[in-house]
Specification:
By secondary structure, the chain is of the alpha/beta class. The protein has 14 helices and 11 strands. The chain folds into 2 domains: 198 residues, P-loop containing nucleotide triphosphate hydrolases (Rossmann fold), CATH 3.40.50.300; 104 residues, Magnesium chelatase subunit I, C-Terminal domain (Helicase, Ruva Protein, domain 3), CATH 1.10.8. The strands form 4 sheets. A 5-stranded parallel β-sheet has the order 2-5-8-1-9. Strands 3-4 form a two-stranded antiparallel sheet. The termini are far apart. The model has no long low-confidence stretch (mean pLDDT 87).
Length: 353
């Protein structure tokens, strides 16, 4: 009977592989345990926001996804549907520093970022603007000209602000929540595409249901003070940053990555997958859209307490990611084609590989 020789190198290799598998399982188990704790916190956050804002649970979830993904959010809705109140409440629940910028036609970039000034006896000094905060509420952002809107670009993308010759890093977490009114054209300016693309999500905030509106009649900050609702602080800057790190660790299979790329590719070449409304698309999503779908899907999985990303997570964030990244041609604009309908068709036609 022949003896089978097993090399020491082979045994060592198997040992290393086994050790890595065990270590990976331990890390995964630890991450799952931490995700469970934060999952409970996020449920409490939604409950606290619901004290102030009735009937917008889906919008609240979308904003939380953007926060978990370390992105920014643009909310579109008619006046009076509680856009600003929702954002203000979330900042209160998160327990971080917040500031509010009311955009107007005469607002200057320096009013947002800050200025370098000379004070007798002190010399030159920098006075930082309201952009230096954790949560920045940009109210009615389309009321300021593009030059002023561009003051947010560096802060949103690079997480830094340049004032004069100095560059200052922003304290994390940094989250911009902007809103704009879609029905007015007088005294408003179209947001530049480069500016819009910096927002991870674009959300649409509609009217509440009749039942919710009945509750709003009695429960509103016109007849009550904000403090009367006693909104509790659930999160903190440290918790938010830890959650953002955990979101990045959620596994995503090669199959999901291919699915994401196929969806974005369908916005660029709609004829290839038979998109009926594809003739109205002037420009499709850039690679930033693929990145946004990936991190957005991870954030959705985290918010739902899942251990990995599923195709449904991608579908859940597809509209928020793509509605401002699919640019319509003149024919589409003339016929009032809704980009959401195009996204519906893409999700119906593009299958998981």
């Amino acid at each position: 009977m022949k003896k089978v020789k097993v090399s020491k190198k082979s045994v060592k290799h198997k040992s290393v592989v086994h050790h890595k598998k065990v270590k990976h399982k331990e890390v995964h188990k630890e991450s799952h345990s931490r995700r469970s704790v934060y999952y409970d916190d996020l449920q409490k956050v939604k409950a606290e926001v619901a004290k102030m804002v009735l009937g917008h649970g889906e919008v609240t979830e979308s904003i939380l996804r953007a926060l978990l993904a370390n992105g920014h959010v643009l909310i579109e809705g008619v006046p009076g549907v509680a856009k600003t109140l929702l954002i203000r409440t979330l900042a209160e629940v998160s327990g971080v520093a917040s500031s509010r910028i009311q955009f107007t036609v005469d607002l200057l970039p320096a009013d947002i970022s800050g200025i370098t000034t000379y004070t007798p006896g002190k010399g030159f000094e920098t006075i930082k603007g309201p952009i230096f905060s954790n949560f920045v509420i940009a109210d009615e952002i389309n009321r300021a000209p593009p030059k002023t809107q561009s003051a947010l670009l560096e802060a949103m993308q690079e997480k830094q602000v340049t004032i004069g010759k100095q560059t200052f890093q922003l304290e994390p977490p940094f989250f911009v929540m902007a809103n704009h009114n879609p029905i007015e054209s007088s005294g408003t300016y179209k947001l530049p595409e480069a500016q819009v693309d910096r927002f991870l999500f674009k959300l649409k905030m509609g009217y509440p249901s009749n039942e919710d509106e009945e509750g709003i009649i009695d429960q509103n900050i016109t007849t009550h003070k904000f403090e009367d609702f006693k909104v509790a602080q659930i999160l903190s800057a440290e918790k938010i940053m830890k959650m953002q790190e955990l979101v990045k660790e959620i596994p995503m299979s090669a199959q999901i990555r291919k699915y994401i790329v196929r969806i974005v590719e369908a916005t660029r070449n709609p004829k290839d997958v038979g998109i009926r409304h594809g003739k109205y698309i002037e420009w499709g999503g850039s690679p930033r859209a693929s990145i946004a779908l990936g991190i957005g899907a991870r954030a959705d999985a985290f918010l739902k307490g899942q251990g990995n990303v599923s195709p449904q997570n991608v579908k859940n964030v597809a509209h928020d990611v793509l509605r401002h990244r699919i640019l319509l041609n003149y024919a589409g604009q003339a016929e009032n084609i809704n980009s959401d309908k195009i996204i519906d068709e893409i999700l119906d036609k593009v299958k998981v590989p």
